[in-house]
Amino acid sequence: MEKEHNLLESDVVTLTLDDDVEIECAIITTFNMDSTEYIALLPLDENGQNQNGEVYLYTFERTESGDPVLANIESDE
How far apart are CA 50 and CA 41, in angstroms? Predict the structure, then answer.
C-alpha cells in the first residue's frame, strides 16, 4: 500500500507514553480496514534510526478541527 501524504503536517510524530516518556516516530503509512483508519509508526532513537524493527500500530482519526488523534487498538480482530 502506498503512503498517503499530507495526512499530517510532518512525517514524524512525537508520542507520549503512559509513563510520560516521549518517543519520536516516523509515519510509515495509514490504511483503512473495516471502516477504521489505522496508522503504522516506526519508533526512532536519538539518531533518527530504528535498530530493532519494532513498529507501533494505532487507530487514527481527526478531530473536527483537523487535529490527528491516535488511540490504542482495543481488539485483535
Answer: 11
Write the pLDDT tens digit of every residue in 13-29. Answer: 888 888 999 999 999 99
C-alpha distance from residue 20 to each of 1, 15, 17, 53 (Å): 32, 9, 5, 22
pLDDT digits 0-9 by tens, 47-62: 888 888 899 999 989 8
Q: Are 60 and 30 in contact (CB under 8 A)?
A: yes
Side chain identity at residue 75, one-letter code: S
pTM: 0.76
Q: Yes or no: say if 17 and 23 are a contact pair by the CB < 8 Å rule.
A: yes
For residue 26, give the nearest of 34, 17, 18, 15 by alpha carbon: 15
Measured CA to CA in angstroms, residue 1 lies from 4, 30, 40, 62, 75 at distances of 9, 9, 12, 21, 23
